[in-house]
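ARCHIVE CARD
Drawer: 12
Card no.: 0347
Subject: one protein chain, sequence and derived structure
Cross-reference: see card 0346
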Amino acid sequence: MDVLMNFPFITIVLSLFSSVVAFAFKGRRARFVTYFLLSACAVMSCFVIIYNLSSETGYFVYRMGHYDAPIGNEISAGLLEPFFALLFEVVMLLSVIGGEKRIFSDIPEEKQKLFYVMVNLCHAALVALCYTNDIFTAYVFVEICTIASCSLLMASDKGRSLIAATRYMIFSLIGSGFLLIGVILLYSITGHLLFADLYEAITHLHSEGSYDFPLTVAIGLIVSGLGVKSGLFPFHLWMPDTYGTATPAASAILSGVISKGYIFLLFKIIFRVVGFDVFFGTGVQNILFIFGIHGMILGSVSAIRAKNVKFMIAYSSAAQIGYIYMGLGLGTRTAIVASLFQIVFHSLTKAMLFISAGGLCDAAGGKQDIASLRSSAHKNKIAGAAFLVGSLSMVGVPMFAGFIPKLLFASSAFESSSRMLLVLVALAVSTMLNVMYFMRTVLTVYHPCEGGASAKTRVYASFAVCALIFVAINAAVGINSQPISTLLEKGIELFANVR
């Protein structure tokens, strides 16, 4: 079974190599390289999960080139790393296939292969962020992901999308700058880059009371950098234009996958590098909790005010990401599991919403304002059904994926008596606001057609299949969430115990 230990490394190398191969193809043929890549990597991620579930330790460390640090580099795989790699691969695959029609119509033919090249690079970076055991390697792939994701925005070559890409790049570079300075500070204090070595050094310094202020600054900079890049309130201002002007596939990947990759890296750094006790000793978690609560409420308020359906979904992303940071700031065991489950739910549901919204906009003649989507669900029934399921899930209706993290967050509130009331009130208010703007849109798209039956819009098979798979996965996660919750709990235990 030693060959399975090579799979994480193979997925990274294969993704980078596939970027070169896709560039060699002309136009639309490049998409088959991406489809094969994501499918093959998803299968390998499944094998890694099964292998770790059946092993005694539940994890393994792969030394690249069989050299020890600092000459060599390491990849580690427990339960969370391959699980989130699989999640990202499934969402990316369904997004590019489901949004295929708009990719070909919105992006000039000479740039279509570049779009798939950048998808492959984004995948390589995300998988590397999941598996890397070196903080500087993580920074390098964060930059690769930043450049590739910005290129996804610019592919459509429209004025509004170019402006959005520029704004996205500015915010991303600010976040990257914070992250780099934080990494440099940690290296200058400890002299290490590997996660395990950093953890030992930071724990030793914290126990002696040495370098407390520099460590707090370094941790704060790293958290700020990844917070800016993932859209934490109040650094979410790049989201509406970024998600609203991109093609549906790019919007689904950026909102459902890219931002979650940065958040997962933050979880790794907190648990595997800093240590949860040291992190809570800095007080940074209190800031995350406050920003998360504000994001939950104000992001939803902005979504209510939005007139464009994609802008509404974008502002909703800011609110849902607030849930993740609220749980991280709360810091209880249940809250951490809830935050990780929120990543899973939001990645699947948000991608489905953007893909289905693209189908509804096509049915409305390409218009994106909510008022113009009246009766569009009758013209594209599959898009309407997918949008309805996504909306119910975002609201937190039982039997759908979005209900589980809300239930876990509510349960976690009772584990923190000092913040219980604030968390419960924020959950209630945010949920009511979610109902207001999602149900408003659902009622609009399902408004009875004037003058009888409406003309049907052609529904491409690729879109229909992917939308239905998204719906099935969302319902399956909502109905039978226990296996995922158990895996997340075991994964957190490995994060806390394995160095």
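Annotation on reverse: Residues 342 and 405 are 5 Å apart (CA to CA). Residues 159-190 form the longest helix (32 residues).
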